Amino acid sequence: MSGTVLVINPNSTVAVTAGIDRACEPLRMASGPRIECVTLAEGPPGIQTQRDVDAVVAPLVRLIGELDARAAAFVIACFSDPGLHSARETTGKPVLGIMECGILAALTLGQRFGVIAILPASIPRHRRAIGAMGLADRLAGERAVGLNVVELVDEAKTLDRMIAVARELRDRDGADAIVMGCAGMAQYRDRVADAAGIPVVEPTQAAVAMAIGRVRLGWSS
Predict the structure, then answer these.
(1) DSSP bridge pairs for 35
(2) Is the pTM of this model over 0.85?
């Protein structure tokens, strides 16, 4: 199976891209398509505000145009799905956003899903998007770990907070599946799922899996 799924990290933190690449490893197969993770050098260190989201759309869409000839599909690896619809107007290839795909995956795993956010300020932005998807009634709740994107790579700061938030979403909000609300959380999925005892979706994995299916089945955008 020829072609490459290009996974774009819209922030400029290379350590986040490396974590995304490791999260994609179980999805790599000899028969393809290939999975390649790239960093948007023009992006901020972390996409944490609506202004950050809006600012990366133009350079992200430009990069997709530049890479279009060698891509079979694109994945935008940021939970705000920046530029998703503009990107779909830029290329005829499938373009998947990790928020959209992560939530869709969670809906197959439970009736009500929770979201682990990075910062409290992220929650209103996510709720707007979930409302636009028509899924507000399926959202059990969203809680923040209180760390920015760069801090997420520090396991000593992050893992215990993520586990605590996951348990709060389960016990206080009634979530029976959880979506990790940032691509920078990828390395913690297995341990958070084990500690919470309910399914935890790493959204980049969900989006890449969907992109692979689209490529292998020959579905266009």
Answers:
(1) 5
(2) yes
